[in-house]
Amino acid sequence: MSRPTASTSSAKDGQLRPTAAAAKAREPMNVLIVGVGGQGVIMVSKALASLAQSKGYQVKQSEVHGMAKRGGTVFSHVRFGPQVWSPTIPKGEADILVALEWAEGLRWLPFLKPDTGIFICDTKRIVPPFACLNRRPGAPLRYSRETPAEVRAQVAEAYAIDATRMAEELGNERAANVVLIGALSTALDFPAGDWEKSLAQFVPKKTIAVNLDAFRLGRSWIEEARTNPVVTEAPAAKAAALAHVPYSVRLEITPEWCKSCDICVKLCPERCLRLNAERIVELAQPEKCTGCRLCELLCPDFAIRVHLDSAVVAIAAAAQETKA
Amino acid sequence: MHAVPETVELSKRPDQDLRPLTGNEAIARGAWEAGVRVAAAYPGTPSTEIMESLAGYPAEDLHAQWSTNEKVALDVAIGASFAGSRAFASMKHVGLNVAADAFMSQAYIGVNGGLVLAVCDDPGIHSSQNEQDTRIYGQFATVPVLEPSDAQEALDLTKLAFDLSEQFDTMVIVRGTTRLSHTRSPVAIGPRTEHPTRGFLENPAKNVMIPAHARRRHVAVIEREAKLKAYLETAPINRWETGDASFGVITAGTCYPYVREVLPNASVLKLGASWPLPDDLLRRYCASVERVFVVEELEPVIEKELRALGIKVEGKQFFPREGEFSPEILRAGFERAGVLEPRAQRAGWALEPLARPPVLCAGCPHTSSFMAVRASGARVAGDIGCYTLACLDPLRGLDTTVSMGSSIGNAIGMAMAGDTKPVMATIGDSTFLHAGIPGLINAVYNQANITVLLLDNHITAMTGGQEHPGTGKTLRGEEAPKVDYEALVRAIGVKWVRSVDSYDLAQMYQTLREAIAYRGVSVIISNRPCVLDPVKIKGPALAIVNEQCNACQSCMNLGCPALTWGKDTFEGRHKVKIDQSLCIGCTLCAQVCTVDCIKPAATVAQ
Questions:
Q1: Residue A277 and residue A175 share a domain
Q2: Which pLDDT band, with edges at 50, 70 and 90, does B261 fall under?
Q3: ipTM for this prediction
Q4: Do B386 and A70 touch (CB under 8 A)?
Q5: How far apart are CA B527 and CA B504, in angstroms?
Q6: Chain centroid offset of residue A228 CA
Q7: Same structural domain for residues A233 and A258?
Q8: Residues A146 and A286 grouped into a single domain
Q9: The domain containing residue A253 runs over which residues?
């Protein structure tokens, strides 16, 4: 077996005998790259891994596939050094965390080294459908609320970059990940030229120029931010949740007009309606009803009216105020 | 700035061609270097890329194919081995269940040309329905199981597996895990060694498993196990690494790097084969240290064997039987065992992570199918594929999912048991071909009153877009005959069959109603292609006329990732906005909009 780094036992006399254990490992460098399916997490980690390998390091790059195309969380661990054992980075031992999406960056923060870890995060927000499933008036978006300022207060060294907008301005939104590579490159002392060579292997030929621009932009942004800290806020993080006001809903059902067509029952998002023994619609689970009016809107015979009490008006007013 | 670590020995090996390969690519490389002539697989995470990678080698070197299922794949490989060629099959752990019938019998027959199976387990259940441990299959069938710990070993052990297969007249399993499959590291590669075919060996006593022959072969299998054990006593794939004698660790495969991560100087016996086990080596090793720990993911296979040898070992009381290992889990176990000092725990920043489950893509044709299924009020037996995601809100449209092809049989059972709701099975095209057809024949034969919704998106989508017999292309992209589902279903004896356009919701609803009303087996084929594979579909995006939107969020029932809340509200609810970069213009949201405010983006002032 040709294994370059571990000591291997020999079996010359027919008996397997112990040999000296591998030399004490020197600590590898740990870089965790995270984002959402389709953002280019794997490309970032390949560019880094390839560069580290070209410098003669042992490199392990471990990623999760499978759900990646389905808008799920994607992460890639890159470890390099004279000797790398575990393919994954233990919690609290990442030297650098590069995040292509804001909430994904926050998810993986506990993996950063508490005292020296560097956090480089795009402020891009990809809001999953799950975050928008509540139809109650005033319901909050279920998306992370932490702001870059709060993160900076908790992390040794943190950079919140609007990399997606920067890439858009260069004319290719998809180069956002390369803006982040530019930022990452300032945290590792490989020469910039070598980074550019590695990058050129992993981006489509037609986009090399724009990606090199994106790389340089990310580099200069960080250098600027180091000397002259900028305050970037994740844009929508400031939009506070609408105040939650208790409210009640009353369904006014005109049984004579209901023809048991079942449309409201089938399409109620909360599944809180049913047909009773006389096959007339009734509100079976009033506590689940959000007053979204879908049943009222869908009923072909105007048999349902939704009455929201006056508090809703107050909520709507509060919402207008928040916007202003 | 972080200083990069010192440079290393690797760079001093200019003689070797080092390539960054994933475990899957390294297994494929190993099979190619070993001179494999025939390779077959059915896609399954985390094993899929093995066969994709093998198909990247020249067609003159080997025939590589997607088979209809894992049993067929293994049977193809077995046939090639009978014919005297080196043969290979790859599958995920649960794929071996499908292939198990052939596997258990072939264990008696042995091989002519070397026969190797790569089986990839999924500890932690990243993308599977369970986390069964393939090593137990090795034990069950008395077939050796080699366990690589990294990509280099994946290549080396796969090559070795072919040699062992021919030397000991046995199939050999190379067992990986998700972590091995999807970790990339530098691998020293080599040239291919051709192994000319040995030709078919006519030997009915060995090749035809009638009872009289099988009885004698079982004896041979037991003798083979003893020979393998003797070989493994001295085989260099087992590594005895000395260290502090107060305790030792016995481990194998992908657990080994975690052990070295947390115990760089410990005494370790790293087994290259986790089945069968070398009894003497184990006894000598255990006698050399005061305490013995066994570190193995999933089942206590090695631990139980050591106990059976009368050796006192510790293992599963410190390291869990479920889930994927990590350096953290090993560290915690060794801390509890008292061999590592507990580390100071720092109170971290308590953040509530965002829930981001995988979702159906924007424009996914399954979305409309499950909108209709949901509205049908049926009891729904689901199956394995992207559409299993429809069990989650907001679609919440299927009630059960068991294994590949189970939906139709499950639906028959539900109907026969008298479920009060109409009963439906939903099954994808690739899954239908894999294991759904016998179920459908059974439904017709036993006159079940069920509706089967065949979700034909013309690809094996969940595993990343692989060809299958319904796509008209082979693994290598060559033209191939295409299954005609409607003709197939009619030939089975189904009288009620209809194809529908997945993007026409009204037609979907109406067809489903009629299918359910039909007494007997009805089959609906929904026929829009996957939006990602084989080509990424992108049409003109839609947009919301904001002033008209009444925030009913009817469109949010689709669970489409292109739809999110806008900043404006109506009655305290958020109006909706469409992410133009994700929208492919399928128009489903426009079809369910209650106020007709979703229009082509080009016509909406933004």
A1: no
A2: very high
A3: 0.91
A4: yes
A5: 11
A6: 27
A7: no
A8: no
A9: 249-308
